[in-house]
């Protein structure tokens, strides 16, 4: 996954070594300082898919625009053939903006996506032996499925358990926030001093 620089670096004038800098001009064009050429959002998407580190900066103000460019790529993907998010899911995400749980929800989603990626990587590593010198081997696939079915079940159980634990932690943090905001409110025990 691309490691696009976070907006925490927005105040820096010089890019960190190894981080590719793209400049966005008022005419909406993106300029790649590494290749000294203009590029498209499709090129930026390829950089993300290739796992390249990059930052997108406004050509005049030097403001970090990386998130907005990544969101544009997501918008294009979502309006394309097979969207990842349902309308209901997008509505739920929007409802969390400005909500006291906004930060917790972001962390929850990020941890869940990382857990899913980790599980996917483990599966890919384990299935690497399904190809021999002639290509895909159906006999090896059958053997793989016989061995992997219980293992996949375990990986999914671990993923679900991890997701549940993250949700419980989120609920506990919400409970602590509510208790600190409303001591003495019915349903919340008074805080010990």
Fold topology:
Elements: E1 20-24, E2 30-32, E3 37-39, H1 41-49, E4 54-58, H2 66-79, H3 87-96, H4 102-126, E5 131-132, E6 135-136, H5 138-181
Parallel strand pairs: 1-4
Antiparallel strand pairs: 1-2, 2-3, 5-6
What key attributes describe this structure?
193 residues, alpha+beta, 2 domains, four-stranded mixed beta sheet, two-stranded antiparallel sheet, 5 helices, 6 strands, 10% strand
Description of the molecule:
This protein is of the alpha+beta class. It folds into two domains: 7-79, no CATH class; 89-181, no CATH class. The chain is 53% helix and 10% strand. The protein is built from five helices and six strands. It has helices at residues 41-49, 66-79, 87-96, 102-126, 138-181, and strands at residues 20-24, 30-32, 37-39, 54-58, 131-132, 135-136. The strands form two sheets. It has a four-stranded mixed sheet with strand order 3-2-1-4. A two-stranded antiparallel sheet has the order 5-6. The longest helix has 44 residues, at 138-181. The radius of gyration is 23 Å and the shape is flat. The N and C termini lie far apart (47 Å).
């Amino acid at each position: 996954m691309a490691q696009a620089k976070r907006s925490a670096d927005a105040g820096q004038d010089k890019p960190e070594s190894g981080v590719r800098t793209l400049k966005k001009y008022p005419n909406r064009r993106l300029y790649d300082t590494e290749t000294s050429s203009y590029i498209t959002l499709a090129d930026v998407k390829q950089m993300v898919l290739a796992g390249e580190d990059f930052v997108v900066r406004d050509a005049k103000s030097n403001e970090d625009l990386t998130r907005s460019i990544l969101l544009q790529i997501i918008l294009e993907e979502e309006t394309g053939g097979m969207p990842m998010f349902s309308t209901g899911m997008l509505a739920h995400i929007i409802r969390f903006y400005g909500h006291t749980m906004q930060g917790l929800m972001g962390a929850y989603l990020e941890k869940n996506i990382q857990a899913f990626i980790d599980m996917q990587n483990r599966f890919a590593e384990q299935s690497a032996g399904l190809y021999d010198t002639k290509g895909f081997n159906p006999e090896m696939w059958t053997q793989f499925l016989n061995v992997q079915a219980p293992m996949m079940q375990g990986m999914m159980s671990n993923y679900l358990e991890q997701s549940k634990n993250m949700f419980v932690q989120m609920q506990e943090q919400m409970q602590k926030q509510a208790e600190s905001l409303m001591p003495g409110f019915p349903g919340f025990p008074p805080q010990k001093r």
